[in-house]
Amino acid sequence: MPPLKARKFDRCSLFAVVGAGMALKDAGIDRGSIAAGRIGIVLGCGFGGIANSEEFLRGYFCSGAEGLSPMLFPNTVPNAPASNASIENGLKGPNVTFVQRFCSAESAFMMACRFLQEGRADIILTGGVDELTTAMVRGVKAAGQLRRNGAGFGEGAGILVLERGDHARGRNAVIKGHVGEVRTIGRLIPGLEAEGVDRLLSGVEDIKLAGLSGTAVAEKTLMERLPAVERLETGNIIGRALGMGGLAMAALVLSLPQGLPACMWRPRRKDLTTPLNSGEDHLFNSDASQYLPHRPPFLFVDKVISREPGVSATAEIVITADSGPFPPILLIESMAQVGGIAAGQVAGAGGVLAAVSQGRIPAAMDPGKYLVSARVVKSFGTLHMVEGEVLGEGISIASAILTLAVGSLG
Questions:
Q1: How far is the C-alpha of 393 from the C-alpha of 27, rounded, in Å?
Q2: Which of 88, 117, 108 lies closest to 180, judged by CA?
Q3: Which of 234, 267, 300 lies at the terminal end of a domain, its last residue?
Q4: Could you give the number of structural domains in the chain?
Q5: Coil, strand, or helix at residue 18?
Q6: Which helix (H) or strand (E) is 22 found in, with range?
Q7: Under a CB-based contact definition with an 8 Å cutoff, are residues 285 and 274 in contact?
Q8: In sequence order, what are the residues at sequence separation of 6 or more whose Cβ sits closer than 8 angstroms to the Cβ of residue 269?
Q9: Contacts of 274 (CB under 8 A, 6+ apart)
């Protein structure tokens, strides 16, 4: 970057621009061979370009409107780092910034996983970025937090490259880790800390390494309930600024054994069994029968994991040893059912699998859980072309392009 151009950026944006470029290079991503619209960036940020904000506001308070500098204003907002990083690195996919205290970077990570799962991008850069100024130190001291949550100052950027498993394998990428499951409980409510930690850790098994960031070490109940495994706590080294979760996650990935397989993200956000007509805010309903006319034994979808009508859907099918052999050809029907959910099918509407092309299925199916995803490629009236895929333990075992006709039965 030319020095003159670099001078126009705030320090936080420079961290993000350089960090994003280094991440892309480390991942071996040739931007010339991948559509720019399929690469996005989702960052967490605490204060952003606060030095520019301070200078911008000082001009106003000291000289009124005449003292305002239009050159400074674009870098006063928290989303400036992600925006500048996307512009300088030619990323035209989703672009989102999270400001959520000490879990800003982790919240960005969750959204990045969701974008990939829903097919909105093939590659997402995610992590956190923050800068440190003397004005911040003075402000924290004035608020009486210098020895509490404000302790452990830090700055920098930690950026990971998240990529859809099939896309990464298609370009023979070096996979450094995989995302198995994401959970969140929000802020622990005083007096109910134990319940919150139970929800977070319930059913979690086979942990070898736990990474801690932000103020996690200050949560006594959480620390007491963590499994007795090796813990990676970077705060004493790099600080605990609001965006430092990105560096903590990068350190965690670098500490993992090499060669781990990639797999899709499975979200757990809240109770997802809210009836569709309840009027309550919801992301989707996990009950497939709320969307499809099929009923057992012809309903193969056990649980809907995510759904964006007209765009995509993912679901889980479970094959048990005592249910008898599962004919692999039924994976086509499973993809069609998830495709109907993705295409916007609702209760009371029928659907017909009109055509199948480029179908690929395994010779046999073993008992276990399988992730079925469907993405709407194009729609014309009630006809929808859908790309379907089935993953087993993070490996693609079946796929097909389906043509569906979805409409009302009445």
A1: 23
A2: 117
A3: 267
A4: 2
A5: helix
A6: helix 11-26
A7: yes
A8: 184, 283
A9: 280, 282, 285
